[in-house]
Amino acid sequence: MSEFNLITRLRDRGLISHIANEESLSKLMKKNSISLYCGFDPTDESLHIGHLLPLITLKRFQIAGHTPIILIGGATSLIGDPSFKEKERIFNTNNNINKWTEKISKQISQFLDFNSNKNSALLLNNNMWFNKMNILSFLRDVGKYFSINTMINRAAVKKRIIRPDQGISFTEFSYNLLQAYDFFILNKKYQVDLQIGGADQWGNISSGMHLIHRRSKKEVHGLTVPLLIQSNGTKFGKTELGTIWLDANKTSPYKFYQFWMNIEDSNVYYFLKLFTFIKVSEINEREQKKHINNQIINDKSFLAKNITRLVHGKENLLAVERITEFLFLKNINHIQESDLKQLKKDGIPFINVDHIKDLQEALVLTSLAQSRTQAKNMIISNSISINTQKIRKNHIFNRQDKLFGKFTLLSRGKKNHSLLCW
């Protein structure tokens, strides 16, 4: 495809929230491959699924022949981006930031090709230049190009200023200039022509373009991807149970997969366009058939499998599929001990037990029943299973009930489960 079509196709997929200097960017990409960057501040030990969209967008540019640069904000994370935050972040220590930088860098390496012959991705850290800069140089060489009047009228800043209970510190207020300087340095030393980020980064990206124009007399470009908000008003990837992380130790692949299985039906085909590399024409065809034989459930599964494979790899996806078969298709034949450990982590409720008198007691202890009488009635009504097998009378647990000598799955109906961990 022509490079002009890359921007067109990003728009067709709903991947462009803002774009600056689109016509000149399209012309530039048509003539040459470009370098572009996206920044990630290490403010935790893992990225979350809110970071997926810019990462996948970088991957789309790399596939098209362009060179993606990841900028880790080793310096800027000491301050924290105030953009649309309700209050100031808690400051992080250098030690934590260094540890988190290492972990996040490994995560990012899964998405981009760092060993390509032509356009290998590059990983940088803005500590490289900020550690060498003093405050007087910063104020003289960067600060003088920015009007306070303009800065305080940016939406992200204004939202905090009008709140007398919070306000915004000078430290946070300066973040916008730090990110602008990142873009300036990357343009000067690495010929970066484009910065991308989430829609909440538009003010920061615009400042970078402004600084480069004032200091270098060059035109550069900015592009943001949508900032996804769920129907309850929370940011995409944040649930009542917490953030959905990309690190399998913080959010298990099974819970990650289930997040996508439980998205609203209205988002399925939109998310297929945003997060997968399936052709838009194929996605539109799928959407036209969504009401036939409940096809939307199959498409939701298709989405969940694609993203789980992208983030967690083929082996973890296979584990998720075994767990899903075990819980919902009652197929116990392929389950592995590691799968049950994953279930215990954050898949379903569990209790640790040494000894249980009988099934009725187990149902009460796991809150699948409120009383022994209710448990007895559930068993009689054929709604209780042990390891996917229906139980029709009260039961005393034995060695055969303990999968791998450690786990017993109790189920009430099709959707209510609890794990006994012996």
From TrEMBL:
Chemical reaction(s) catalysed: tRNA(Tyr) + L-tyrosine + ATP = L-tyrosyl-tRNA(Tyr) + AMP + diphosphate + H(+)
EC number: 6.1.1.1
Annotated residues for binding of L-tyrosine: Y37, Y175, Q179
Motif 'KMSKS' region: chain residues: 235-239
Keyword annotations of the record: Aminoacyl-tRNA synthetase, ATP-binding, Cytoplasm, Ligase, Nucleotide-binding, Protein biosynthesis, RNA-binding
CC annotations in GO: cytosol
Pfam families: SYY_C-terminal, tRNA-synt_1b
InterPro entries for this protein: aa-tRNA-synth_Ic, Rossmann-like_a/b/a_fold, S4_RNA-bd_sf, SYY-like_C, Tyr-tRNA-ligase, Tyr-tRNA-ligase_bac-type, Tyr-tRNA-ligase_bac_1
Subunit structure: Homodimer.
Sequence similarity: Belongs to the class-I aminoacyl-tRNA synthetase family. TyrS type 1 subfamily.
NCBIfam families hit by this protein: tyrS (TIGR00234)
Xref: HAMAP family: Tyr_tRNA_synth_type1
Name the UniProt record assigns to this protein: Tyrosine--tRNA ligase
Organism (species): Buchnera aphidicola
